[in-house]
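Standup, Tuesday
Yesterday: got the pipeline producing structure tokens again.
Today: sanity-check two examples.
Blockers: none.

Example 1:
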Amino acid sequence: MFVNSLSGRFLVLTTVFVMLAEVLIFVPSVARFREDYLLLRLEKSQIAALALLADDMIDNDLERELLKNAGVYNVVLRRDEMRQLMLSSPLPDMISETYDLRHSTPYELIRDAVLRLLDTEDRVIRVIGEPVRGAGLLIEVTMPTMPLRDAMVDYGLRILLLSAVISVITAVLLFLAVRGFLLKPIHRVIRHIKSYAEAPEDARRIIEPNAGVLELREAEEALQSMQTQLTGSLKQKEHLAQMGGAVAKISHDLRNILTTTQLFVDRMEGSNDPMVQRAAPKLVASMSRAVNLCESTLAFGKAEEAAPALTRIPLAGIVNEVIDGERLAAGDSDISYSEDIPAGLVLRADPEQLYRIISNIVRNARQAIVATGKEGEINIRAREDEDNWMITITDTGPGLPPKAREHLFTPFQGGVRKGGTGLGLSIAAELVRGHGGRLDLKHTDDKGTEFEICLPKGEIDLDTLSV
């Protein structure tokens, strides 16, 4: 609907505000009109009284004509400290109000005008004022209120009609101005957004800022910057996707070749040839690392991780399962495992993904300690506060080298040990983000490393997000 559009609402608001301004002008204008009306009656009455002073022999018909022309019943003129009834006629009713225009304030004039408009009865009022041109000390008249009210209503209607015409003309002009200076540029931006959404990879659809309004110009420049960055990112992601598909195919075929080769290497381990016996373990280790690299690459390139199926789970069971698996993988390595999980600690997470998160971090710690050939310890502890669950994993390994810290959570770049892919921490960080939490490296040095998993307890509050 037109009213729900920006232009429609602007037109309605403009009309309302202009009418409101006219109403605020209307009341003082009517009060001013009433004052002028009464002063005019006093002036006409003064002229009639002066005519009587000039000729005392005015007959009754002429006196009535003078009073009718002045629009009053009686005229009292005070000259030389004498109060004299100059012209008179019978009053149809008692005097209801007396108004002294010599000392009236703007508030009193507005109040009396509003009350007169609201009063529909014809009453008799007394009006006191100062004679013009010093023709006396005071002039006083009695007059009916209905002609005054009728004149005020007629004047008010003309003012309202004029106000309505001015409001409509002003609103239309403002509407056309806003439509030309504001709405057309906004519609242009909208058209560019829709056009760009149809083919974001087409650089020709990126907007060229040309708005004359400063704020719209800034919006167009921001949109241009966003579209340029997005187009570049889409091209980069397309190239990465194509390269990833090629790498996945190569890894798949290479894994099959390596698996077959590994079968022959396993048979070579039974050879009595000393040279074969010395080379076979190294060859097996190299083949295992190659197969592991292919499998990790395939797993990472399949698709995005599924959204976590959040449920209430006891943390102790997950931690015990991880530790049991790592003890078996460690074999004869001199590594001890410990855990400090509060009894009954239950958190909300995907059990399978939480196992993978903790397992990836612990596995990296175990492999780092094994690479040193020394004994070591891995500890898992947990705590909670009002907002989060925190799981801390520490080890006594050699710490992370500076190069690894720079790309710690970047796939294929954050690897620490020789032959590592760097996918373990990358996958763990991605899974933690899927839970709405974060994975942080708290500290690392030659005495060990500490990671902290922070998982939020509450739901996200959309009202706190900025627009």
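Example 2:
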Amino acid sequence: MARRGAYAKGIAKREEILAVALDVIARHGYRGASVREIADAVGLSQAGLLHYFGSKDELFTAILVKRDEVDNADNTGDMLEDLVRIVAHNAEVPGLVHLFAQLSIEAADPTHPAHDFFRERYGFLRRVLAERIREGQVDGSLRPGLDPERTAAIIIAATDGLQTQFLLDPTVDMAAELAALLGELRA
């Protein structure tokens, strides 16, 4: 059934806010993108914008959820190659990388609005990567001696660590380094 009325308008406005916020943060960075700037860009007051999200932290968490949706829209089916593609894209949007890194640290606090997002995201990534590694071992594309769960955790840690290195030194080629690591896993 199609959603109608104020509810559908609210969903559409929320999606518009997230699309604009992705662009604002990508252009101005996490520190340079204020709630006021995002609100102005979508024609709302700050209070009006936060009506859709509850708080600044909930807004930023929703931005990361939207970023993941956008990043995963072009998946090819080869998760390892898709991961390298996404990391290469991240180099073009350092503000979003900074937002992700900052919120992931803050979300270590169980009371932070992004805590569940990051717990679920990392759990999902570990499970899916481990399964992809098992499949690669069966089809012969990945080395047979790898422990899938441990290797998945290492890939995620390497990806996050490369993002931190990139934020400190933008000459770090995150995608090339990740591709080299993943190349070591190939049979």
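Quick observation on example 2: The radius of gyration is 18 Å. Residues 5-32 form the longest helix (28 residues).
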